[in-house]
Amino acid sequence: MNENTPMTPAQQLFAEEHHNLVYAFLNEKKLPEDEYYDVVVFGYLQAVMDYTTQGESSRFSFATIAWRKMESRLADHFRHQASTKRAAPTVSLNAVMDDAGLSLSDMLSATDESFLEMETGLLFHDLGRHMPRRDMNVLRLKADGYGTREIAQRENTTVHMVRSILKCAY
C-alpha cells in the first residue's frame, strides 16, 4: 500500500488498540517520547496498514512487524542526522572571526580595494579590445571619479561627446 493512502476506519481502530507498542518501543530503546515519537509513529502506522491488508496470511505477529517498521524509521532518522550536510559546522554571521574583532558579516560586506582594482583592470582590458584609445581614456577618468565636464576639459572634447562615449560603454 502507498504511504499516502488514508487508513480505513477499521485500520484506525486497530491502530488505537495497539498504540501501546509505540511507547513500549520508545521505552525499550530508552528514547525520549517528545523527541522520537514523531520519528517512529509513521513506521508504526505503516505496519498497521501492511498487517491489516495482509490479514491472517502474515507469518509474523503484528508486534514483530510494527517493531521492525519502527526500527527501520529510527535507523533512517539517525542516518539522515549523520549525513555530511547535517554535520557541517555552522557559524553565526555575528561571530568574531579574526584578531581585529571583525565578524563574518563585517568581512563579507567589507570592500576589498585590491579586488576592485583588479576587477576594474580586467573590465578595461576587455573593453580596450573594442574601443579606441581616446574612449578608453574617458572611461578611465570616469572610473577615477571625474565628472563629465572635467573629463571633457581634460580630453579637449565636448560634454555631449563624453556622454556619448559613456553611453556606448554601458
Summarize the structure.
By secondary structure, the chain is mainly α. It has helices at residues 9-17, 20-28, 33-54, 62-82, 84-87, 104-109, 113-128, 133-143, 148-154, 159-169.
Count of structural domains: 2
The chain-level structural class is mainly alpha
Number of helices: 10
Please state the average pLDDT score: 84
Question: How far is it from the N-terminal to the C-terminal residue, by CA?
Answer: 61 Å
| SSE run | HHHHHHHHHH
Q: Flag low-confidence runs.
A: none
Overall shape: elongated
As a percent range, the share of strand residues is: under 5%
**Count of strand segments:** 0
Q: How many strands, what sense, and barrel or not for the largest sheet?
A: none
Rg over CA atoms, rounded to whole Å, is 35 Å
Which percent range fits the helix content? 55-70%
What is the element layout, followed by pairings?
Layout: H1 9-17, H2 20-28, H3 33-54, H4 62-82, H5 84-87, H6 104-109, H7 113-128, H8 133-143, H9 148-154, H10 159-169
Structural description of this entry:
- It is a single chain.
- By secondary structure, the chain is mainly α.
- It has two domains: 9-87, no CATH class; 113-169, Arc Repressor Mutant, subunit A, CATH 1.10.10.
- Helices cover 68% and strands 0% of the residues.
- It has ten helices and no strands.
- The chain has helices at residues 9-17, 20-28, 33-54, 62-82, 84-87, 104-109, 113-128, 133-143, 148-154, 159-169.
